[in-house]
């Protein structure tokens, strides 16, 4: 099927509508799964670094600052590589919409909801993204195979998340129903972003990450100036370091790896990293924040790894294995 393209300074703009032939991932190798693990490591650092940063920096200022730090870092790297950011309206519309549904709105919604919902409940609710991605893919877009095995994997991963966080977290559900629904809507937004992100697969992943982060940080900057008056803040050195590290590691590298995984592995497999982030995030919280290990960590890890395996093993490979049996 022909694609509509635009001149983007050496980078070809993507087709407006992804098709099975353009969005389905190709043959997978260990490097692809290494990218998935690297993405999980990058985004796992979000949990402890956010907790450190928000100790003395308000949420809007924190999100804007980390986005602009990440964008500045990527723009410097792109300049060194000799790649220019696209200047056409079509590209920036794609960047703007992707950033809005993948970061700006869901991050603000979840940050607000966490004022009322405990962190453990938030983690469980936010871990429903792979399930929503499966349902949207199966019922609406059908841009890649949505097998029953992947749904089973999503459910196993969610069960592992609940086991790691603790069953006691489930007892708190329903007390702040509006905030909890808001978190679920944010996870639906994340799921939609992984699917919409396929429209950006013809761009260099670093270009997409830089453009998206630049847009997101710039949009929130005026809000931060009006609401938070950042010049009056007194952030701790730890909060400043957390902002910079999160901007470069979690946002810049993380978003770049995210778009690489979307192109190589597809949306459903890429969403599997959401479950990998849970045990890695717990380990980082223990190391950086001195938190204690969950009592059901072993059971949770087994369920999480089983879920991730079910979501990442190609359907063709499973069929070949069954035929051999």
UniProtKB/TrEMBL annotation:
UniProt cross-references to PANTHER family, sorted A to Z: AMINO-ACID METABOLITE EFFLUX PUMP-RELATED, INNER MEMBRANE TRANSPORTER
Protein name: DMT family transporter
InterPro entries cross-referenced by the UniProt entry: AA-Vitamin_Transporters (IPR050638), EamA_dom (IPR000620), EmrE-like (IPR037185)
GO cellular component: membrane
Membrane topology: Multi-pass membrane protein
Domain EamA per the UniProt entry, residue ranges: 34-165, 179-311
Compartments, as annotated in UniProt: Membrane
Major localization class: membrane
Transmembrane spans: 62-82, 94-117, 123-141, 148-171, 177-200, 207-227, 239-262, 274-291, 297-318
Domain of life: Bacteria
Residue ranges, compositional bias (Low complexity): 12-25
């Amino acid at each position: 099927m022909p694609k509509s393209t635009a001149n983007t300074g050496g980078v070809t703009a993507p087709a407006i509508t992804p098709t099975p032939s353009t969005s389905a991932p190709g043959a997978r190798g260990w490097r692809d799964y290494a990218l998935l693990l690297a993405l999980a490591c990058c985004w796992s650092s979000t949990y402890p670094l956010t907790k450190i940063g928000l100790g003395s920096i308000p949420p809007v200022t924190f999100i804007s600052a980390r986005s602009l730090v990440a964008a500045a870092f990527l723009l410097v790297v792109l300049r060194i590589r000799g790649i220019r950011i696209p200047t056409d309206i079509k590209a920036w519309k794609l960047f703007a919409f992707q950033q809005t549904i993948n970061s700006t709105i869901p991050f603000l919604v979840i940050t607000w909801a966490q004022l009322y919902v405990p962190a453990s409940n938030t983690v469980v609710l936010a871990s429903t993204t792979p399930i929503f991605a499966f349902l949207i893919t199966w019922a609406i877009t059908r841009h890649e195979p949505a097998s029953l095995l992947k749904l089973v994997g999503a459910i196993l991963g969610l069960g592992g998340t609940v086991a790691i966080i603790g069953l006691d977290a489930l007892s708190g559900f329903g007390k702040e129903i509006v905030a909890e629904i808001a978190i679920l809507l944010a996870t639906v937004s994340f799921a939609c972003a992984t699917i919409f992100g396929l429209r950006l697969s013809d761009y260099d992943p670093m270009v997409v990450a830089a453009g998206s982060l630049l847009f997101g940080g710039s949009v929130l900057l005026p809000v931060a100036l009006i609401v938070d008056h950042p010049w009056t803040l007194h952030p701790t050195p730890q909060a400043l370091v957390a902002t910079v590290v999160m901007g470069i590691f979690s946002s810049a590298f993380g978003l770049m790896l995210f778009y690489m995984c979307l192109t190589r592995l597809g949306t459903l497999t890429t969403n599997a990293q959401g479950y990998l982030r849970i045990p890695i995030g717990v380990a980082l919280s223990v190391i950086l924040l001195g938190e204690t290990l969950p009592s059901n960590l072993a059971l949770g890890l087994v369920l999480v790894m089983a879920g991730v395996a079910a979501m990442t093993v190609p359907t063709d490979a499973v069929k070949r294995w069954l035929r051999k049996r």
